[in-house]
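User: structure tokens for this one?
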Amino acid sequence: MTLTLAHKICLDPNNEQEQYLKQACGIARFTWNWALEEWKNQSENGLKPTAFALKKQFNAIKPVDFPWMYDVTKYASQQPFIHLQTAFNRFFNGLGGYPKLKKKGHHDSFYIGNDHINIDGKYFKLPKLGWMRMRETLRFSGRVISATISPRANKWFVSLNVELCQAPKSCNSQAGVGVDLGIKALAALSNGEAFEAPKPLKKSLKKQKRMQRSLSRRLKGSNNRQEIKEKIASVHAKITNIRLDSIHKLTSFLTNHFGGIVIEDLNVSGMLKNRKLSRAIADIGFYEFRRQLEYKSKYKGNYLLIADRWFPSSKICSNCGNKKEQLALHERVYHCEACGQSLDRDLNAAINLKNLLY
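Assistant:
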């Protein structure tokens, strides 16, 4: 079975290289917008456009109308047509909305095919750009299929898709574990361990509010306003990095030490509708936890069981199996009236999840 993983690495471009990256992003965005507008026009005139036909039409006028596109990799002005076709396929199948125009500063990225990629240790090479330093070496051993370069908070990143050439080291442990996710603690394990949630958004909320007030006082279009916007972007990037770091460490710990893992199928979108808890839930990253756990379990050969969404893990006594009909959210200690057992609510739920393995 072929497995493909992505490794996102921070780049260290010089001024000339950064201008190249910005230009490539602009060309990819321009091409997408041109193709989308042309698609709309042809549809309104009763035609049935396709990405292949639009690409052929675009390439015919590119040497005369857009000669500056040849200054960067060819993929910057080719791949957007494929992405647009994929977007419309999703729209026609009811899986997504109608494609929209891309804006500068919000949709900056460009794709590169493997024939234009050359990697040597901590250096990454593109045609007409030269060697550019990466902050770290590629983590996975295999064939690089593609790459996507994008900026975030005044930094540039390359996401490398790698087709693994060898099987990963599997988890040798046969132990099972139940994992109950929460707000107070990121995760409670059935063996009694608990992982605290870093809650980076909550900790930086006052700083964000102060910076947003400062932004509102700056004149639109001024350098001062742009400087504050960059600082706010850095704060948001730091929040994301802290959250991802904690989730990566937890999911790696689980897949390295337990052969069988059970988690709940949480209705995250429904939970976010609770206006009193939505910010705290979003600060944890439940969906990202499940996404990482799924691909890492597949990568290392763990057995991952997703418990049914309606399984009452918190209401069942892990000792005798008695079920409570009502259990308020503020009751953090589970007390069973049948057998008299009292233990932490999250630990009780984690044990019930683990019991589903047997």
